[in-house]
Amino acid sequence: MSSTEASPPGSTAPKGPDDGLADFGYSQTLDRSIGKFASFAAGISYISILTGTFQLFYFGFGTGGAAYWWSWPMVFAGQVMVALSFAELAGRYPVAGSVYNWSKRLGSPATAWMAGWMMLTASVVTISAVVLAYQLVLPQLWSGFQLVGSAADGNDAALNGVILGGILIVFTTVINAIGVKLMARINSAGVFIELVAAVAIIVVLAFNIVNPPSVLFDTQGLGEGAPGGYFGVFLVAALASAYVMYGFDTASSLGEETVDPRRTAPSAILRAVVASFVIGGLILLLIILAAPDLGDPAMGEKSGGGQMVLLQVLGGPVGSIFLVAIVVAITVCALAVHTAAIRLMFAMARDNALPAGSTLARIDPVRKTPVIPAVLIGVIAIVILVANAGVPEVFTAVTSVAIIMIYLAYLLVTIPMLIKRLRGEWPDVDGPDASGKAYFSLGRLGLPINILAVLWGAAMAINLAWPREDVYGSGWLRFIAFIFIGIVALGGLAWFLLRGRHHVGCLPEHMAKQMDEGMGGAP
Predict the structure, then answer these.
(1) What 3-state DSSP class applies to 511?
(2) Which residues contact 481 (CB under 8 A, 6 or more apart)?
(3) Fewer beta carbons under 10 A from the terminal one: N or C of the chain?
(4) pLDDT score of 67 more than 80
(5) Separation CA 331–CA 339 (nearest Å)
């Protein structure tokens, strides 16, 4: 596992059918069939505008009131710095398991492994968290979806959420096991429906505005007498936005299955994050401005929130149609998260950086996809989901921590990238040997953008992990971010240092032909 490449990854020389994959020491084993829209759809479906905005509106509004909306552009301003950095990397390193492989070429082997391990663990937990959104929407569409007891009962709702979520995980597992072409078709169709529905929601809500824009500056007395005043409350409410706007790197994680990934992936990453900001921001804004009663306590309750406003404003049949679109969004979001996790597990296993690497990296000769990771991740996600039935408060805290781990994994890319820039080792300077100029490049803006990406990522990781009772619960749960991340990080690092690092290296069956013949070493 070296941080060097076999040849300049940003070279403008024509590539073969593998689009330069051999430059990184790998043979083309996955099915390269994803086009531009499918690549964009992978990134935007992971972010999932409708899933995130409607699943988390209640928390943001209930914590910070209408003024919490300003956290959306704040989070975008920070995340777009990360997205710009990732776009530059996507053009240079169009390899599966983006975060892991980027960190591998920017930092040390231990840093790369930790980035991959944190991202993989968080992704599997995130699948379980996303599928629970079914419980927020399906019973409101039809009472028959409440298969157990009453949706008004917390325990019944938790158990029903496990059942509905488990069904969705089975679906995403089967689709991913069949192959990337079917996954891409379903995902693209779902994203198209989601985008059309999102625009329609914006238009309809815009015609039903009843509150003046001034409500966005009304703190409603929240935070009075508390440390930090409203700013402290606002930082908590901002988590609702931070929990949504990530996962845009998925477009690059499918780099080995994308046609012309060096050009396609960077633009897909940026389009996904910008589209999510514009459409999601307008939806959140208009939910607030169109809400019949901003003082209704249900606005800040899980069973109410944004979906309640949608039904109040649009009425029965029309509102239900939009709720169906939200169900579609949740479905493709879960599918995209599952897909990204599979590529990450495959990428690490191919480097023999996971136990049973040869088995996990096996590609089905017919479907051209890693079937075993698809099934294994699905099973683990269901096992994690089942925990919600007995201890929902612990599960909620753990899923929140998983998002912190994703932010930390991003930092394990942007920090090594910044170190290379500061050392003058980043090949993006004026001169005849500059690389990547034919693809996406930040040029001289790269350093300040990279610095902002690191500062933003560190600040948000601290804000997300801060031991707040109103986020994680009381008692020991307040410190679950440090406990859970500590166990995952130290346990994983111990395995890697004591055993894993001694076996890391591209498996022979995945090695590029020229390397297999002795023309180079493992990547």
Answers:
(1) strand
(2) 400, 401, 404, 464, 465, 467, 472
(3) N
(4) yes
(5) 12
* Token representation of residue 402: 């998983």
SS3 292: coil
The sign of the torsion formed by the CA atoms of 102, 106, 109, 111 equals negative
**Three-state helix/strand/coil letters over 375-437:** HHHHHHHHHHHHHHHHCHHHHHHHHHHHHHHHHHHHHHHHHHHHHHHHCCCCCCCCCCCCCCC
pLDDT, average across residues 167-187: 96
Residue whose C-alpha is closest to residue 346's, from 333, 358, 332: 358
Over residues 2-21, the mean pLDDT reads 46
Q: What are phi and psi of 218, to 5 degrees?
A: -95, 115
Sorted by sequence, the CB contacts under 8 Å of residue 375 that are 6+ apart come out as: 173, 177
Place of tokens 């991340």: 485
Q: Tokens 């996990």 belong to which residue?
A: 360
pLDDT bin (cut points 50, 70, 90) of residue 428 is low
Residues in the chain: 523
Report the SS3 class of residue 26.
Answer: strand
Q: Provide the token pair at 412.
A: 């394990």
| Exposed/middle/buried for residue 507 (C-beta within 10 Å: 0-12, 13-18, 19+) | middle
Residues forming a β-bridge with 511: 26
Q: Where are the beta strands (DSSP E) in 231-281?
A: none
Burial readout 126-162 (b: 16 or more C-beta within 10 A, e: otherwise):
bbbbbbbbbbbbbbbbeeebbebeebeeeeebbbbbb
Tell me how far apart the alpha carbons of residues 130 and 335 are, in angstroms, rounded to a whole number. 10
In degrees, rounded to 5, the angle at the alpha carbon of residue 73 between the alpha carbons of residues 67 and 75 is: 105
**Residue 28 DSSP SS3:** coil
Query: Could you tell me which CATH class the domain 29-426+442-517 is placed in?
Result: mainly alpha
pTM greater than 0.85 = yes
Average pLDDT over residues 448-456: 98
Among 210-224, 301-315, 392-406, 422-436, the range scoring the smallest mean pLDDT is 422-436
Q: What is the pLDDT of residue 446?
A: 94
